[in-house]
Amino acid sequence: MRLRPNTAAYGRLALAALAVLLLAASADLAQAAGPFEVMAGSWSGSGMVNTSDGTHERVKCLAKYVSEKAGNGVQLDLRCATDSYKVEFTSSIVQSGGSLSGNWFERTRRVGGQISGKAAGDEVNVRASGQTFTALLNVKTQGTRQTFTMESPGAWIPEFTIALNRAQ
């Protein structure tokens, strides 16, 4: 007596195999996502600006990150204001071979320059430099919270720290 294959069982087995392949592929894609994927979206928050003359001012900021190239590129638009001034900062950054590179521009003062750095885990560390300005920036993203710090020794604003929350 010859057994006939159970087509329903084969169908279920094929669907199960397909589901396992899709889950494995999506896990691989999630691991392959670049460092900027978790930043994508709109963020807002406040922080503190320290100036070279010793004053401290509260600052409010809005940030928008547009992730590109499977998270390996980002367009940043950061707008911050205190009672006495505002900053409108844009940047375009790309990851290639473990290194970050790109450019930045501050619209209100019409200055710009280059960005270089690295991303590791939930942190992005870059150096922004131009003709009249050099700063070290750190962005750490953990879920719906993000910290953004800047240090620029010798500049009019040597320290800048903001805590951002992802907009819902």
Descriptors for this entry?
2 domains; 10 strands; 168 residues; globular; alpha+beta; Lipocalin; 10-stranded antiparallel barrel
Walk me through this protein's architecture.
By secondary structure, the protein is α+β, with helices and mostly antiparallel strands. It folds into two domains: 1-32; 37-166, Calycin beta-barrel core domain (Lipocalin), CATH 2.40.128.20. It contains one helix and ten strands, in the order H-E-E-E-E-E-E-E-E-E-E. It has one helix at 7-32, and strands spanning 41-50, 56-68, 73-81, 86-96, 99-106, 111-120, 123-130, 134-142, 145-151, 159-166. A ten-stranded antiparallel beta barrel has the order 1-2-3-4-5-6-7-8-9-10. The longest helix is centred in the first third of the chain and has 26 residues, at 7-32. The radius of gyration is 23 Å and the shape is globular.
Report the count of strand segments. Answer: 10
Tell me the Rg in angstroms.
23 Å
Mean pLDDT: 81
Task: Classify the secondary structure makeup into a structural class.
Answer: alpha+beta
Tell me the count of domains. 2
* Low-pLDDT windows of residues: 1-31
**Subunit arrangement of the protein:** single chain
Helix share bin: 10-25%
Provide the succession of SSEs.
Answer: HEEEEEEEEEE
Q: TL;DR of this structure?
A:
The chain is α+β, with helices and mostly antiparallel strands.
Fold topology:
Elements: H1 7-32, E1 41-50, E2 56-68, E3 73-81, E4 86-96, E5 99-106, E6 111-120, E7 123-130, E8 134-142, E9 145-151, E10 159-166
Antiparallel strand pairs: 1-2, 1-10, 2-3, 3-4, 4-5, 5-6, 6-7, 7-8, 8-9, 9-10
